[in-house]
Amino acid sequence: MRRAWLRAAIVPVALLLSACATQSPMSSSTPEPPSPTPSVTTAAETALTGNGDVPQVLDPDLLEHLPVTVHSQSGYQQRIFATWPEFGKPKIDAAIRGYYLSTIKQFEQDYPQPTDPEAPSPELNLDWHLLAASPSMIGIVADGYQFAGADASDLWHSMWFDPSTDTVYQPADLVNSYAVSTALVGLEPSRRTMVTTLDLSPLGSNPYGAATLVAFTGNGDLIVGFDECQVAACVEDRVTMTIPATTVAPMLTAAGKRAQAAEMDPVDPTTTASASSPSPVPVVTPQPTAKKVNCKKLKCVAITFDDGPGAYTKQLLGYLKAGNVPATFFMLGQQVDTYPSTARAVAKAGHEIGVHTWSHRDLTRLSPIQIDKEITSTVDIIRNETGVTPTLLRPPYGAVNSTVRKEARKAGLAVVLWNVDTLDWKTRSTPKTVKAALRDTRRGSIILLHDIHKTSVAAVPDIIAGLQAKGYTFVTVTDLLGNPQPGVMYRYGR
Ligand code: NI
Predict the structure, then answer these.
(1) How far apart are the C-alpha atoms of 307 and 396, rounded to whole Å?
(2) Domains contained in the chain, number
(3) Rounded distance from Cα 453 to ligand 1 centre (Å)
(4) Which of 62, 141, 241, 328 satisfies CB 3.0 to 4.6 Å to 477 for a cystine?
(5) How many angstroms is it from 306 CA to the middle of ligand 1?
(6) Shared domain check, 261 and 338
(7) Distance 360 CA to ligand 1 centre (A)
(8) Banded model confidence at residue 20, pLDDT cuts 50, 70, 90
(9) pLDDT tens across 101-112, in order?
(10) Could you tell me if residue 233 is inside a domain?
(11) Distance between CA 209 and CA 182 in Å, rounded?
(12) How far apart are the CA of 8 and the centre of ligand 1, in A?
């Protein structure tokens, strides 16, 4: 039984909502449900969008069995946030990292931070989705948004590889490019009823070779996708063209057939190892029964960790436990989706969990509906995975306006910034991170760190020891603030 896979299946939004509303957590004695019933997948929140068919994406927690690393880097001037998986395979990881880093570099060159402080900051947000998985084929797609001061655009880029042999496939390895290109040109007139400005001719005789997305539908149809402005007017969004499974069948190479199978009927890449392991059962954990700490008398500080959970979070939990330190974790929905058991471990250890949104977008640039979706999807996955209902929001980049505060209030969340920025995200230096934390912390401080960086996690034992030696007592943000109010913004406590 592959319970993990059932959870990974994709369901329409309506089914997802009703499943969440009516299902109680499955226990190992519960009979297998007749149809896939993912307990919490929020894939609907993160699905790709484009003009035409888009591939379904899988629940990334499947990869929690694999040595996946999610990297990210973020800046406050140019707002850049990127996450991508690495699989511990040299060639595959180099290809993935290469794509993300070159996209970031290009963005930094093309859209430098404006000198006018009133001008909006350029923003690049790159995340990833799992397209397909089997022991011999994994597909991912980078999904990006960039804002360049005047206009915003979306981009995507699919990557396919064989983890068993550390092989990276190019799009031309999956199909007969000539045959698919011919089929795309044949499809062009009918597709133009939806994409009126569609024109493949600038791409020459091999439009498939210029495609930025190659994927399959759940039925095995081939989806070929292009970036905004690539084959149609920019307003038409990213464009996809679909070649039916029956038509594409003779065009697929052996690798293409494996890719199609891995997307239509995905299997856990760890195969037998996890096939018999039971599905994790959500643990309902109460918020920490905080020891009665009186911050009117004690020198209290709160240590906070953003952007996780990630690959180093469990190590961090060990350091916090050793120092008997409660912390506050501002989690990203997409990271909880990838690391649900780590999120549960954080809750179980009694730490506070707050919301850092789903995808780390600058909220001040989003509509109220989009802000609400970023917040509530993350509240939902935290609650479903850990049993904890968050009451705090930390907006990405600390970017706040009245709309953000209003949406936070509606969601019952206090807005929590910080007054000690260790710059750990920038220096990536353990000694500098420790030094900044010990130098800048005062009574009531809220200290900002990121548990997705190895160097930051490594700094925690010395920060704890150093501040405890100075007489500080660590508390959660809620304990530091006393009774934080929804929609109100805080940078420090008493
Ligand atoms: Ni962040």
Answers:
(1) 9
(2) 2
(3) 12
(4) 328
(5) 5
(6) no
(7) 6
(8) very low
(9) 999 999 989 888
(10) yes
(11) 12
(12) 26
